[in-house]
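Memo to structure team: turn this sequence into structure tokens by end of day. - J.P.
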Amino acid sequence: MTRDSSRTPETGTAPVSLITGASRGIGRALALTLGRQGCTVVVNYKKNADLAEKTVADIEEAGGRGLAVQADVETTEGVRVLFDEVARRCGRLDHFVANAAASAFKNIVDLGPHHLDRSYAMNVRAFVLGAQEAVRLMDNGGRIVALSSYGSIRAYPTYAMLGAMKAAIEAWVRYMAVEFAPYGINVNAVNGGLIQSDSLAYFYSVKGMPDIGGVLDRIPARRRGTAQEMADTIAFLLGDGAGYITGQTLVVDGGLSVVAPPFFADAGEDLRLPPRPTRDT
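Reply from structure team:
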């Protein structure tokens, strides 16, 4: 079950964390969070070496150790290269976070076979192959966390492709949790709502997409989430306090997925929530 490789560990006894797509957004926020906890963080990136090296520098400034590894996990070769490098430089792995994602935002009738193939390769296949490789390096137990989104459980314009892939990831998480439990490995997912990021800005720039302000009005929290809030949730699942949590999907969406029409934001004045009550003293 273990991975056979020539090892020249550079990490000492610090926990080793691999994050795909870690040069920006949620991945970067998590990398810095784990760096502050003293982890050795493998920063995977596809193209932007400057951003990855900046993340590594910030990890080390925060008190951790960072390693930048270029690999395109959309390809099977890229996944293999990434984990070969982790094995060579670290010798083991404690945390694997599947964060990298990509898709086409189109109506279903406009999706071509190449869109389907690429979205599967980048989101589902990369996660499954990565988890297989991670298990072989987790010789003393470990944690696997996959990033999901509320499109896995709700339908909205142009998100069918990525939402379906995220739903598949959540199903894989449940199966992995059962199969990997005897190895001491927990597997979970974090399902994010509207999280402030370049990806969110890009999605709401799609032609014809409703104005994001109207969507935020319908979220009970009335705001976007932050990359740090997602990072903190993932870090919890990687930590000691989540030792008995596996096969679960934690939702970080400000209450978005629990509301339904008619929305409070659309109600008349008589039904809108009054100001917060105060206690008479």
